[in-house]
Amino acid sequence: MSLPSSAHPARATALHVAFDAAPLAGALADPRLLAAFGFGADAPAAHADPRYLHVALPAFGRAPLECWRVDGEVTHGRDDGIAWSTGGGLQFGALALADDGDIEAAADAAYARLHDWLAGSDHPHPLRIWNYLDAITEGKGDAERYRRFCVGRARGIGRELAPGELPAATAIGHPARSGRFQLYWLSAREPGTPLENPRQVQAWRYPRQYGPQPPGFARALLPASPAMPLLLSGTAAVVGHASQHGDSLDAQLDEVLANLGSLIGTARAMRPGLPAQPGAGSRLKVYVRDADALPRVDALLQSRLPEVPRIVLHGHVCRRELRVEIDGTHG
Ligand code: 3EB
Q1: In the prediction, which pLDDT does 3 show?
Q2: Is 196 annotated in the active site?
Q3: pLDDT in tens, 200-258
Q4: Which end of the chain has fewer CB atoms at under 10 Å, N or C?
Q5: Probe target for ligand 1 pocket from 133, 148, 170, 243, with the most ligand atoms within 8 Å of CB
Q6: What is the 3-state secondary structure (H, E, C) of the chain?
């Protein structure tokens, strides 16, 4: 006979994101570790444990490990080239496909795999997706690789995701050739609420001038469980649909912080308990186009947001004039 469910109250789904200086082996020894990410040349390039993912973007200084922990035992495996882990109401998944120059085909194939994976999963709701590709702003006009990526992504996912189902996302370019398109995600049993930024046009409604296929992502996602942080998409100095301050890194960073503040404000209307500002409970990843600007961006963030743990990476934002982008978690 099974006990009434009230005797075993299910723990609320929670994700604990930490930036840990400890070595990988220690992180992987934790049965509640859902995923660990190493950045740059100093991080291990690979590990047999499918919970470890190497992101090749160069780091400013020695980046800590990004660790995702959940409240529950984690199981993991590899199936058909998809590395996965599941526990505490959440699932992590990752795959990488060869990119021989046709990023539209690589994104189409990867997103078709993701679509099929989610359709067969007991965690079918993607909350957050990361895309890392080579030479993101190479090519002219509609042949630009980011625009081709958007076309392949939309075709591969198989149907137009309704605005109410869009995940939060990041799409960043490798400054050096990796030869791969890397895709990873966080999905859940329960759908979350996609959020938009009142300062920005919804990306899925970008006008034609930015390409034939508007990018399919929400500016942030608020998961159903109040124990989950707000998930912030890659956020750049875009107001309306236009890039701002193409001539000023400092002004772009201020605009990014204004956009993040606006997203946090939007989320607080639904969840007033979220902190009003980025703080000690936030985690930010910062992508900087020009390697020369890495120290400047790090110093500006140290002065603007001294309590917020950050990882600063050398990565290309998907419009040439955008010098910096930030994603992360809050709450
Ligand atoms: C922007 O605001 C910047 O295509 O998945 C940010 C986050 C950006 C995600 C994506 C693109 C994506 O349009 C670019």
Answers
A1: 45
A2: no
A3: 999 999 999 999 999 999 999 999 999 999 999 999 999 999 999 999 999 999 999 99
A4: N
A5: 170
A6: CCCCHHHCCCCCCCCEEEEECCCHHHHHCCCCEEEEEEECCCCCCCCCCCCEEEECCCECCCCCEEEEECCCCCEEEEECCEEEEEECCEEEEEEEEECCCCHHHHHHHHHHHHHHHHHCCCCCEEEEEEEEEECCCCCCHHHCHHHHHHHHHHHHHCCCCCHHHCCEEEEEEECCCCCEEEEEEEEECCCCEEECCCCECCHHHCCHHHCCCCCCCECEEECCCCCCCEEEEEECCEEECEECCCCCHHHHHHHHHHHHHHHHHHHHHHCCCCCCCCCCCCEEEEEECCHHHHHHHHHHHHHHCCCCCEEEEECECCCCCCCEEEEEEEC
The residue contributing the CA closest to ligand 1 atom 6 is: 234
Q: What is the pLDDT of residue 9?
A: 53
pLDDT value for 160: 65
pLDDT at 5: 45
User: What is the residue extent of each domain of the chain?
Assistant: 12-330
Residue nearest ligand 1's atom 10 by CA: 171
Ligand 1 cavity residues, CB under 6 Å? 131, 169-171, 203, 215, 217, 233-234, 236, 238, 318
Residue nearest to atom 11 of ligand 1 (CA): 171
Catalytic choice (66, 144, 255, 325): 325
Q: Please tell me the predicted confidence (pLDDT) of residue 161.
A: 72
CATH superfamily of this structure's domain 12-330:
RutC-like (3.30.1330.40)
Question: How far does residue 169's CA lie from ligand 1's centre (Å)?
Answer: 7
